[in-house]
Design brief:
The complex is a heterodimer.
Chain A (H helix, E strand, L loop, with lengths): L4 H8 L7 E10 L3 E9 L5 E8 L13 H13 L7 E4 L9 E5 L7 H6 L7 H17 L12 H15 L4 H12 L8 E3 L8 E4 L3 E5 L6 E3 L1 H7 L20 H10 L7 H27 L7 H5 L3 H13 L3
Helix pairs in contact in A: 4-8, 5-9, 6-9, 7-9, 9-11
Chain B lengths: L6 H15 L5 H39 L5 H14 L9 H16 L8
Classes of the chains: A alpha+beta, B mainly alpha.
Amino acid sequence: MEVDIAQALARLAPALGGTGVEAAQRLSGGASMETWAFTVTGPQGPREMILRRRNGPFDEATARSTSLATEAALISAAAKVGAPVAPLIRLCEPADGLGEAHITARIGGEALGRKIVTDPKFEAVRPMLARQCGEILAQIHSASPDGIPLKRSDAAEELDRYEQVYRQSGAQRPILELAFQHLKKHAPAPVADVLLHGDFRNGNLMISPDTGVAAVLDWELSHLGDPAEDLGWLCVNSWRFGRSDRPVGGFGDYADLLAGYEQAGGVAVDLSRVRYWQALGSLKWGVMCLMMYSSYAAGAESSVERPMIGRRVSETEIDLANLLEAGL
Amino acid sequence: MITHPRTEELVEAVARWIDTIRPELKPRDAFLARVAVNVLGVVQRELTLGPAAEIDAVERMSGLLGHGGSFEDLTAELCAKLRAGEMDASTPGLLAALRANAQDQVAIDQPNYASAR
């Protein structure tokens, strides 16, 4: 179904508090999710907004990711507890002609991880980011999941799911095999579930060079689970963009992350628990890289990107070997 | 193997040519062209570093398993033993050998990758 996005948005302008829409352009997106930037014009002056829409069918019951309606509810729940988000402006209705979609404000800043880690522009805020991330995660984890259809998962279930994918891929990688067995055997004691962001990492954070974290983006992998899952995912070396000496996102230290987390009301989390989830995160990313290669090998995707990402498995192997050698 | 030119020189020539046309491409194609250049870098390094890396990996795995064999057979046996719990992180020499193998593989796949500590 071809939809003229610019036209549909223009028709929607009154509902968005304006009289017209300008400069609608597609930013990026995978095969099924589109992101569009546009400006609403009118008496309030120009306002920049972001449209996220799915251009294919979706079954929330079987998918790992959430529907856009659930994502909208998550953004509102996070905003309610004070976490920085791009505020929801509209959850689209069928009559809007945009399909499954929502519209949020567009927050200025930089989301490209490499720039945040290396650009001199961010030198001043970089030392604050790890603590801010801890504070924000404590806020998100305090949000109420009531009425939001989220799945739950723990370390054992995550390992099980990804081990199945690994087996199906047919790949033989000793370090991944060792990591699966080791992490299954050493799973941390269960704790009370909290609402997790699910993909909280450098690359999904809009960073302002003046104030630091301006918005947490991409809520579609949110679920209920162990708070250390979000903390550990942020520390996976694959999102440190070359600054492996700064374990938190390539910009900060564990101590600042955990201090920020506790100070903002989060439960006390042991570093060893974060490192456990960091290792599980590297393992997950390694299996995801295999999956993306598999989608190429099966003919589902033809882009040169897909097979190449399969060669990123070795980065997770060296990271896992280092973590295992350090006793995690 | 033919030497004038060597295979890796052919690969390098294609990578260089892609680099020269990249600035004229549309953003999406320019991105994919950069990926393509990276792909050719992997091919080039696999041609030059791969054979020695495989010999070393076979030697390390043979040391762990107590017998020789092909890279594929030794890898499969090692995976089976790890899965069965007959070997684990406490097995003497295991992590050092696997780490060295991974290091050689990263040197082919992403030589600039800064691994975690």
